Amino acid sequence: xxxxxxxxxxxxxQPRASGRRAPANVAASQRGTDLGVRLLNRGPWRKRDRxxxxxxxxxxxxxxxxxxxxGGGEVDLSDQLHWLVGGxxxxxxxxxxxxxxLLSGLRTVRLETAGVFGAVTANRAPATVxxxxxxxxxAAGMVRYHRPECPLVAGKTVRELDAATIAAExxxxxxxxx
Amino acid sequence: xxxPFRRWRRLALKAGASALALGACASLVMAPPAHAADRSxxxxxxxxxxxxxxxxxxxxxxxxxxxxxxxxxxxxTSLGGSDAFASFPYPGDTLVGAPxxxxxxxxxxxxxxxxxxxxxxxxDPRSANYPGITLSSRxxxxxxxxxxxxxxxxxxxxxxxxxxxxxxDGVTSQAQTVFKTLQFGNVFxxxxxxxxxxxxxxxxxxxxxxxxxxxxxxxxxxxxRIVVPKQTPGTVPLPIPVPGVGQVPPLQFPPxxxxxxxxxxxxxxxxxxxxxxxxTLPGQPQGRRYVIPTGPxxxxxxxxxxxxxxxRAADTKHGVVAPAITFSxxxxxxxxxxxxxxxxxxxxxxxxxxxxxxYDVVNTDTNVTTPPAGDAPTNGIDAAAIPGGASAPGLVPSxxxxxxxxxxxxxxxxxNFVALRSSTADTQDLYLVVMAIGIAVLVMGTVLRRxxxxxxxx
Amino acid sequence: MDVMTALRTxxxxxxxxxxxxxGLVSLLLGYLGVSDTEYVVKQIPYVISNGLFGIxxxxxxxxxxxxxxxxxxxxxxxxxxIAVNEHGMTVRADGRLDAEGVVGR
Lengths: 178, 458, 105
Known about the structure:
The structure holds three protein chains of three kinds. Chain B is of the alpha+beta class. Chain B has six helices and 27 strands. In chain B, the strands form five sheets. Chain B has a ten-stranded antiparallel sheet. In chain B, strands 1, 4, 5, 6, 22, 23, 26 and 27 form an eight-stranded antiparallel sheet that branches. The longest helix of chain B has 26 residues, at 426-451. Chain C is mainly α. In chain C, 77% of the residues lie in helices and 4% in strands. Chain C contains three helices and two strands; from the N terminus they run H-H-H-E-E. In chain C, strands 1-2 form a two-stranded antiparallel sheet. Chain C starts with a helix and ends in a 7-residue tail after the last strand. Chains B and C meet through helix 1 and helix 6 of B and helix 2 and helix 3 of C.
């Protein structure tokens, strides 16, 4: 899954002297066994999320097994259709659990993204603009216009915009500050 | 050399896509041919226990009262037809259907005949319980069966009819009647009576295997005396039943002595198996039965006022009629009264169970049905011509010759095939939808990965 | 990276691939069963046991792969936040991160 913020990639660090190599996807700035272990074992889910998804899938699989066994023992089509509906319900139940798992992880990733923004731009000075301007700016390579205090333009060389320039260049509103 | 994480992801993605494509190609390659042979069948089984007829000069219009029971019948076709009934006593289709007919004519709801249970395709199994009578009927997609039980499984009698599709797509049709004990007043009694007619159609070739049987464990006629002849007859007649064909001269055999011939058997333990009477002979090991000549037995019965006739098993074009034996006797006239007078003539026919499977293979390319080779009957006797109630009254095993003969099927007849037995196109379409849903889940997940679900920031 | 470490690290993607393969095989076997008989009552059990189970396994495989991607995203973001908060990483004027031991591209 791609992330919307194109942060520069962090090259992995050299292996530590102890010989225990950190996985490639662990950022180089993590030092210490406890931090690496935390990142290796944890994910964007809580224990409750795991319980729900495992329980939902187990229940769905169990129901599907029961319906498969029952439907195979019937010779009447109308009775078999009852078992078929039961099987569909079981698969739907487990699908709900899986969907909850993904949405829960997605929510945590979004929160983490917001946390990173907050940490990175905490002491960033907003872009300066001339007095009397419309107060909208953009930077080189951007396709949207932002407010000067928008964290996405913090620390960048920006240029001021007016309504005519925005329309001429076809810039779109920023989703963060717009 | 370690592989960077992102290359792992690309490799895994390619492996997953390859597996997906491979599975899709394999399913297409291994799809069944566009046209495949199809099968059609029309099978029936019926058993009527005892068919009895009573006549008396006092009956108006010289009517003969008939009845049968316990009666059971099952019918199953490849076009979705499935019906069965069980009844005791069975008054015949006319009387069973009379309440419905009268209700329609007079607009008044007449109660149905209670001792009759019937089901059709789509019905739930039905049963009826009365003191001493248990009737059950079931009509499913692959099985149609019925049973009429009088008494108990230990000491009663029952008729069972069953038609079912076998695991190899063959069809088995079986009709059976079992009597534990039958008592006909003080005249005679029977025990251990079994009549069986069974036809099995092979699922691949459609070839039929016919089986039939009529056996009576014991015939007890008080005071019956059988004189065993001393030697076999010198001539054996060969009657030709086909009208217009000249009779052949009887076969000549040298007379042969009969073991224990010349002695008289008093109240012997008679039995009957597929056209031959058996008996235990004095001085012989207990329980061992010997076939005895039919002539002396029939003469003994005649001396007791009973006529016994036997109808041997008959193969029909698609089935078999089990052997039947008929006992006829006259009950003496009652004392003079204004209502019921004269001798009462009664006939009791046992056996005659009937089973049939008309099984054909249909080539869907040409829409031509082809009956299986080698399905010629042994004597070509039409089931309807079998006398003595051995046919299937009320449920004639008729088959539409246009559907099963060597003619092209009409579009309506072809459409009827899908009523129960889905052609290779219908239910496979359903399963292809299931497969498409599964692959759609995979594709959606891949698209979700590529497009992302986060709000774009740039 | 040795094989065991790769298995331990990418267990979710390996399980996803296995689930997808099992699901596809199940669907294929069900199709073979359905095409082998002409009676609907004999085909329905294949739909339930092979068809629905195949869909279930494909869904599990898809969810496992997406959750693996989510886990990777979370790890990178968490590592970034830890680097900034705990190790005093700063952002240069051109927007790149700057910290000891880290080289921006």
